[in-house]
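Exercise 7. Predict the structure of Ribulose-5-phosphate 4-epimerase/fuculose-1-phosphate aldolase from Sphaerotilus hippei.
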Amino acid sequence: MDMSPTDLKPAHISEAEWTLRQQLAHCYHLVDHFGWTETIFNHISARIPGSEHYLVNPFGLNYDEVTPANLLKVDLDGHKVEPSPYDANPAGFALHSAIHGAREDIHCVIHTHTTEVSAVAMKRAGFGHDDFYGAQLTGRVGYHAFEGITLFEDEKPRMLASLGDKHILVLRNHGVAVGEMDIPRTFFLLWTVQRAAEIQCAAGAIPGDNVALAPAVSQRCADLTAQLIREDDFAEKFFAAMVRRLRPRG
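Solution. The predicted structure, encoded as tokens:
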């Protein structure tokens, strides 16, 4: 997606931060492109390298209206640390701040509640691991009991206990949060979770028994996927290819 002249880098922003802003804006546009948005709600957050500040969307904008220049810089409490004509949504940042504040290995967090993900979050068994994508989630999912809208400080320790050392947190009766070391890896993880939810919902609508995978097979799938996205440039190539889908053809 081409940026307008109003999205030129301001002088006070470093090249590293501007690159991150461009990548994060693309991530917002991709979530919109795939129809995973919840109107103006939810966040995709990214930590600015070497700081305790984070980039998030201005509250009230659609995801396709997010640009590198209008992204907000906030502290761990979700409050703006630089002037902006746009409002922040500290209450909506509560889930993100809990994860960012506790996990040094997670630099990007995406929260969604698509129809398919929310449907799986309703099921007592949660994600199955018998399809190609669900198998890749084996041993990687934590589950957190619903306590109402995630706004309050006292819930954070319980959310973190539910997440543990994992990178996927299913919010029961609600949605999901995923986090990884950077934006491309986090987006790829979200895509995998979304595909697993879609297939699980579709398979559940078809009469007849599913073919079960042996636990060792599904665990091997998860281990190989985790190794692939950490050691290779797989996630970067995937993210770049998805960004190209945003560009008009012709």
